[in-house]
Amino acid sequence: MLTEIIMNKAVFITAPEVFRDEEYYKPKKVLEEAYTEVITASVKTGKLRGRFGFKTTSTLLIQDINPNDFDAIVYIGGNGSIVFFDNHYALKLANDFFKQRKPTASICIAGVILANAGILKGTKATVFIDGKEALIKGGAVYTGNPLEIDGNIITANGPDAAEDFGKAVLKSLE
């Protein structure tokens, strides 16, 4: 009998509510199909609810994340992600993963988290249009493209880029 071998482990930072459903489940599916374990973390454990009713479960509080336990961090977008814009733990984790040269990724408006963490200076990045000024203020070279990969930083601008974003995160783990 063959057993699945988990090759990598990623943590998805997801708002407790009003995260963007497809920005969560499309990249998660891409990663899991390639034997990457995805752990969902938030400001609470238990049930989380997306903007359109998709439900998932957080099993880890963001303050309990040890970057040494994961190969990548992914910030999920949607209006709910505003809870992380100035969250000490969310910003510190972005810095920790970035400094360890691990994939540090955000989709949609969650790119503001990376900008606020100060890790986008001189980096090509994209974000949902509402976050453009925050990225520029954070020193990013805003492109407006659907997907940007600059070193270990991966950013996407919204739900239409979710699958390609997942593939980019997966490729960065190879």
From TrEMBL:
One CC-aspect GO term: cytoplasm
SUPFAM superfamilies per record: Class I glutamine amidotransferase-like
Pfam families (alphabetical): DJ-1_PfpI
InterPro entries named among the record's database cross-references: Class_I_gatase-like (IPR029062), DJ-1/PfpI (IPR002818), Prot/Nucl_acid_deglycase (IPR050325)
Protein name: DJ-1/PfpI domain-containing protein
PANTHER family, A to Z: PARKINSON DISEASE PROTEIN 7 HOMOLOG, PROTEIN/NUCLEIC ACID DEGLYCASE DJ-1-RELATED
Organism expressing this protein natively: Endomicrobium trichonymphae
DJ-1/PfpI domain ranges (all copies): 9-171
Lineage top rank: taxon: Bacteria
